[in-house]
Amino acid sequence: MKLSRVVGIDLGSSNSSIAWYNGRVPEVISVDGSPLMPSVVTIVPADAVGPGESQIFVGLDGIESGKRFPDFCFRLAKRKLGEMWHPDEDQGYQTVGAPDGTLHYQGPDGHTYSPVEICSMLIAKLLDAATAKWKGEKPDAAVICVPATFSPSQRKAVEEAGRMAGLAYVELMDEPTAAALAYGYDFKKVRRIAVLDVGGGTTDVSIIQTGSGLVSVLGTGGSSITGGSDVDAILGRYIVNQWATDHEGTDLAVDDTAMSLVLQESEDVKKRLSRKIKSEFRIKDFDRSPGGTDLHMDYTVDRPLLEHLSQDLLKRMRAACLVAIAEATRKDANFSARRDLNDVVLVGGGSRMPAVQAMAKEVFGQEAKTDIDCEIAVALGAAIRAAVLEGRKSDLTISDITSWSIAVEVYDKVEGVASVVIPRGTPYPSERVLPFILTNREPGQSVMPVRIVAGDHDRAASCELLHSIDVPLEPGDPRSARVPFTVGLNSRGEAYGMCGDIEWGST
Question: Could you say which architecture CATH assigns to the domain 6-183+373-399?
Answer without folding.
Answer: 2-Layer Sandwich (3.30)
